[in-house]
């Protein structure tokens, strides 16, 4: 399957929305829709596989930063089923980001995420 840039953009927007989803059941359902069963998420703080583990990492980040939201910071760049994008964690009420990261996402043949590999570019002191 060849994934178009517009499809990759939509996938990344849905991915960011999943990190912002406050309801655990809705978040778990979104993870299942976005990721392959054996999908992996890896960043400097976590390395997990499978829907339950990915949902747990997201829940942990949400509990660590209540009152904050993830947002895309710039354009998505993608080719051959691999994309990269920058995101930031900002106060929901507005203000400067407290965390900035860059992710590389790999899409499987079914159009769902097979892996996301994150890098932290800015972290709180």
Q: What features would you describe in this structure?
A:
InterPro entries: NTF2-like_dom_sf, SnoaL-like. Residues 12-113 form the SnoaL-like domain. Keywords: Isomerase. With 125 residues, this protein is an alpha+beta fold. The chain has one domain (5-122): Nuclear Transport Factor 2, Chain: A. Helices cover 33% and strands 40% of the residues. It has 3 helices and 7 strands; from the N terminus they run H-H-E-E-H-E-E-E-E-E. The chain has helices at residues 5-20, 24-34, 51-64, and strands at residues 35-43, 46-49, 68-72, 77-79, 82-91, 99-107, 113-122. The mean pLDDT is 95.
What's the pLDDT, averaged over the residues? Answer: 95
**Helix/strand class:** alpha+beta
The shape is globular
How can the largest sheet be summarized? 7 strands, mixed
Helix share, percent: 25-40%
What would the CATH topology be? Nuclear Transport Factor 2, Chain: A
Write down the domain tally.
1
Secondary-structure element pattern, one letter each:
HHEEHEEEEE
Strand content: 35-45%
| Rg on CA atoms, Å | 14 Å
Based on the structure given, which CATH architecture is correct?
A: Roll
Separation of the first and last Cα atoms: 43 Å
Would you state the CATH class? Alpha Beta
Count of runs of 4 or more consecutive helical residues: 3
**Number of extended strands:** 7
Low-confidence runs: none
């Amino acid at each position: 399957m060849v994934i178009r840039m517009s499809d990759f953009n939509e996938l990344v927007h849905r991915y960011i929305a999943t990190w912002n989803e406050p309801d655990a059941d809705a978040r778990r359902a979104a993870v299942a829709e976005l990721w392959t069963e054996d999908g992996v998420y890896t960043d400097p703080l976590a390395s997990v596989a499978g829907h339950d583990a990915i949902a747990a990492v997201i829940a942990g980040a949400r509990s660590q930063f209540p009152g904050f939201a993830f947002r895309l910071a710039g354009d998505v760049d993608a080719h051959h089923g691999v994309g990269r994008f920058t995101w930031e964690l900002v106060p929901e009420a507005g203000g400067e980001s407290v965390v900035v990261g860059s992710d590389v996402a790999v899409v499987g043949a079914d159009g769902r995420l097979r892996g996301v590999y994150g890098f932290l570019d800015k972290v709180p002191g």
